[in-house]
Amino acid sequence: MTFEADTERVYPVPDEPATMIEATLCFPLRDVGGTEEVLLIEKRRGLGEGWYNGPGGKLEGEETPRECAVRETREEVGLEIDPADLEKAGELEFRLDGDRHTFCHVFRTRQFAGEPHPSEEAYPEWFAVDDVPYDRMWEDDRLWLPAVLEGETVVGEFRFVGGKPLDEAEFAGHDLERDVDFDAIGRSR
Ligand SMILES: CNc1ncnc2c1ncn2[C@@H]1O[C@H](COP(=O)(O)OP(=O)(O)OP(=O)(O)O)[C@@H](O)[C@H]1O
């Protein structure tokens, strides 16, 4: 539920459902003999099944986005990350038929321990950053992920239409801002 303040009272905005999902994506990066690589997962179940994405998922309980990204990366591919080593790289809002559907915090890191291994939910695979399989990913990824992999920051809104589920909806438009200083606006958590 979101609220809008006027001078006298605070009231709910009727067209914003209370069900918006808050989620994370995490992109581990490494250098192999001068080639920059990113760890993606092939999602084996749930939303976006069969597509590549970063490790990630929905916030649970009282955890912060950073804690969620660490937990999801551990659960999905077995890498251990210190939350302080995650760099906030983006905030993405996915809208479905005009309603806010998912708000996603994007992180990247070069510091992690362990070797990625498959889980029930995900099959991990390293890709050169200039050979990312955008044709097997969410349609919006090609619009913001290249910037994230180049070390930039992004804030974007991506609009889908055509009813649920989100991964069967049609991509209809977007707005994207680059070079956002998340520390300066107090949004690096
Ligand atoms: C619309 N365009 C999109 N583009 C890129 N990424 C998108 C996305 N829409 C959702 N995502 C991400 O997909 C993951 C699903 O979350 P995830 O918790 O794995 O969902 P799933 O339905 O499988 O639920 P479980 O928690 O496994 O039960 C989560 O990181 C979320 O940010």
Kindly describe this structure.
- It is a single chain.
- The protein has 189 residues and is mainly β.
- The chain has one domain: Nucleoside Triphosphate Pyrophosphohydrolase, CATH 3.90.79.
- The protein has 2 helices and 11 strands; from the N terminus they run ββββββαβββαββ.
- A hairpin with an 8-residue loop joins strand 10 and strand 11.
- N6-Methyladenosine 5'-triphosphate binds next to strand 3, strand 6 and strand 8.
Key terms for this structure?
9-stranded mixed β-sheet; Nucleoside Triphosphate Pyrophosphohydrolase; 189 residues; disordered N terminus; binds N6-Methyladenosine 5'-triphosphate; mainly beta; 11 strands; single chain; two-stranded antiparallel ribbon
In sequence order, what are the helices and strands, one letter per element?
Answer: EEEEEEHEEEHEE
Helix/strand/pairing class, anyone?
Answer: mainly beta
Q: How would you describe the shape?
A: globular
Number of domains: 1
Number of strands: 11
End-to-end gap: 21 Å
Question: Would you tell me the overall average pLDDT?
Answer: 92
Approximately how much helix is present in the residues? 10-25%
User: Which small-molecule species are bound to the chains here?
Assistant: N6-Methyladenosine 5'-triphosphate
Strand content: 35-45%
Taking the sheet with the most strands, its summary is: 9 strands, mixed
Count the DSSP helices: 2
**What do we call the CATH topology?**
Nucleoside Triphosphate Pyrophosphohydrolase
Task: Say which CATH homologous superfamily is assigned.
Answer: Nucleoside Triphosphate Pyrophosphohydrolase
Name given to the CATH architecture: Alpha-Beta Complex
**According to CATH, what is the class?**
Alpha Beta
Radius of gyration: 17 Å
Question: Uncertain spans, ≥5 residues at pLDDT below 50?
Answer: 1-9
Catalytic activity: 8-oxo-dGTP + H2O = 8-oxo-dGMP + diphosphate + H(+); 2-oxo-ATP + H2O = 2-oxo-AMP + diphosphate + H(+); 2-oxo-dATP + H2O = 2-oxo-dAMP + diphosphate + H(+); N(6)-methyl-ATP + H2O = N(6)-methyl-AMP + diphosphate + H(+)
Cofactor: Mg(2+)
GO molecular function, one term: dATP diphosphatase activity
Protein name: Oxidized purine nucleoside triphosphate hydrolase
